[in-house]
Amino acid sequence: MAQMNMLQAINQALSSEMEADKKMMVFGEDVGHFGGVFRATSGLQEKFGRERCFNTPLTEQGIAGFANGLASNGMTAVAEIQFADYIFPAIDQIVNESAKFRYRSGNEFNVGGLTFRTPYGGGIAGGHYHSQSPEAYFTQTPGLKVVVPRNPEQAKGLLIASIRDKNPVIFFEPKRLYRASVGEVPEGDHVIELGKAEVIKQGTDITLLGWGAQMEILENAAEMAAKKGISCEIIDLRTLSPWDVDTVAASVKKTGRLLINHEAPLTGGFAGEIAATIQEECFLYLESPIARVCGLDTPYPLIHEKEYMPDALKTFEAIKASVKF
Amino acid sequence: MSNATTNAETVHRVSFLDKDSLAIPILKILQADGTAYEEAVLPVIDEALAAKIHDTCVFTRVLDERMLGAQRQGRISFYMTCTGEEASIIGSTAALDDGDVILAQYREHAAIRYRGFTTEQFMNQMFSNEKDFGKGRQMPIHYGSEALNYQTISSPLATQIPQATGVAYSLKMQGKRNVAICYFGEGAASEGDFHAGLNMAAVLNSPVIFFCRNNGYAISTPTDEQFKGNGIASRGVGYGMHTIRVDGNDMLAVLAATQQARAYALDNNAPVLIEAMTYRLGAHSSSDDPSGYRSKDEEAKWQQHDPVKRFKLWMINKGWMNEQRDADLYVKYREEVLSELKVAEKIPTPHIDNIIEDVYDTPTPILKKQLADLKNHVKKYPESYPKSAGRV
Ligand SMILES: Cc1ncc(C[n+]2csc(CCOP(=O)(O)OP(=O)(O)O)c2C)c(N)n1
Fold first, then answer.
1. What digits encode the pLDDT tens for the residues B49-77?
2. B270-283 pLDDT, tens per residue?
3. What's the CA gap between A148 and A270, in Å, rounded?
4. Which has the least CB within 10 A, A293, B46, B182, B298?
5. What is residue B309's three-state secondary structure?
6. Quick check: CB of B188 below 6 Å from ligand 1?
7. Are the beta carbons of B96 and B111 closer than 8 angstroms?
């Protein structure tokens, strides 16, 4: 085990996978010598050469299409989109192509060896073009896997699993934790299976569900609730697509209550999908309506970032309301 | 065949073109010492226009220096300079009519200043206070002003390029003798929107000036990792448009080219591409450190091509400027920027109600409910939301 921050964990995952897989390449805007605007890829070009770790021209559409081409012809492609806010120019290549390569060709071709890494989320005074959480757009697309780690250890294990997964994966990195989150990370091969949620705290009164940077918020809210005698179970979904219905349903059957928290706007967010499914799975066990604590239905504001955020206080209030219902 | 290839000559041996077949010359009017090249044809310029250009240069230098300092002191969260690129930006804006619509990338604050954006308005935007036209919603430097025909900056790169084509087409359809001008970097020219925007402008006969600031870098990526062709200008030719390449550090060359581009665009209802060869002297933004990807020597070399100094020398040669007046102007703007900064940072942030405004023309029922819930929450925990507490 070694102490490191999330960027170092991601860098280590990329480095060890490039070491093990000679067909793997890492590319995107400024990722070469500079190591990416957040330095997640630093040192990789020096270690593996300019043909395997390189800058691309400034075109997300091009990056995604190029990545599809590489992966469809047997390579392992790890493409960085500099900010998740800028994944939209690539959406046709990702949604219509990456996601459907296997299906539309009857598995003659696929882009299994493709991973998009991209920093997402707010809390960094970035305004609406450096703060969005666009995960729900991709969970709506069959054929893609969507993964979000919550800390350095998870980032390493889930990124390695994403790179090795035989399907295109979008790996959203919570940028406000890049340097802020520091922890023990296992050395060597550390793989966390995709599609599995993790119960990170046992509890009896209500299940709190989230992913990525919001996990910290749920933990803080659970601490506040504990002082009021409320016992929260906390689950990190980790993979949004395909998501682990069984683990969540088992927890809700135990606690009788569910609260889902995400930064993206409420309407059309992934919480709605979870709520609908859990309501089907657990109808007779529910003691209160499923609560959603999410971003407002507005673009991500700059000056009112604090007000916009589904923070611990709002979560705490929703926990109390749910338990009192 | 209705195709332009009909007037192509026929050959009988394989022969390829390469990028040097499209080697495009660079227009230069001013020499380093501020005198014009002998054979150069000067733009239309008088003392008043020169003074306004110079004034904008000095203001911009001062603003960049002061606000970068303010960012380092933690007073604003972010800043971007246009240091080194003043001639590209100001020389081109100075060739326009106030009714021409500007669609900028983000490094063109000198252009909105030239149009009359006040120091106070700059500060209000950067401090996200309640007087900011953008209502505190975007990061510093995302200016916009309807009155000045300067569309508000959007961070996603190149999106303004096809939009400019549409703006120009609408100006034409409205019968206005105006053009749109669209600024972008050589990095942004790699985006799909660039190709879509140029092609549509050429085919649909939009009177738009595409103005590329080729400043050598897109964050850390140098031009040789961005494109392999003969600059950005060769693409204008490829799309069938009037194209020129200028020394982007030469105020008079940029002015001359843009004046003629504007006249051509209006007279022919056609787009023009201008590629200004310049250099980003500063960091990409206040979050960037260029020492990780380029040498001090390289920067020092470009310092010697300072566009502001070169133009000042030309004015001095004309007897339109002297060192003392120039120095006084710096002093005046340093004081003005500092005092406006102090005022702006004390103005309250926008009211919390603003959080749901302008998402749609009127807030939807869901938004109204979300605001009501939010206000109740803020009332309950005022100490956690200091920007809105006490004003809910
Ligand atoms: C679609 C999109 N992708 C990535 C970014 C992040 N980004 C901001 S500025 C920049 C470099 C732009 O370079 P260039 O167009 O050459 O302009 P310059 O900064 O040199 O003036 C990048 C990659 C963005 N804003 N939008």
1. 999 999 999 999 999 999 999 999 999 99
2. 999 999 999 999 99
3. 13
4. B46
5. helix
6. yes
7. no
pLDDT (tens digit per residue) in A210-223: 999 999 999 999 99
List of domains in chain B: 47-345 (3.40.50.970), 352-389 (no CATH)
The domain made up of A198-324 has a fold known as Rossmann fold (3.40.50)
Q: Tell me the C-alpha distance between B368 and B237, whole Å.
A: 52
Q: Are A307 and B388 in contact (CB < 8 Å)? A: yes
Position B7 scores a pLDDT of: 78
- Is B183 a residue of the active site? no
B128 Cα to chain A: minimum distance (Å):
7
Handedness of CA A70, A72, A73, A75 (dihedral sign): positive
From A101, A177, A90, A102, select the one nearest A137 (Cα to Cα). Answer: A90
Same fold yes or no, A2-185 and A198-324:
yes
State which residue of chain B sits closest to A59, comparing Cα positions: B191
Closest chain A C-alpha to B207 CA, distance in angstroms: 26
Q: Which helix (H) or strand (E) holds A214?
A: helix A214-227
The band of B1, judged by pLDDT with boundaries at 50, 70 and 90, is very low
Helix B47-72 and helix B86-93, axial crossing angle in degrees, nearest 10: 140
Residue spans per domain, chain A: 2-185, 198-324
Residue B6 above 80 pLDDT? Answer: no
Q: What beta strand segments (E) does B24-164 contain?
A: 101-103, 150-151
Nearest to B71 by CA among B287, B269, B243, B220: B287
Is domain A2-185 given the CATH code 3.40.50.970 in the classification? Answer: yes
Strands A206-210 and A232-236: parallel
Q: In this complex, do B293 and A33 lie within 8 Å of one another by their Cβ atoms?
A: yes
Mean pLDDT in residue range B317-340: 98
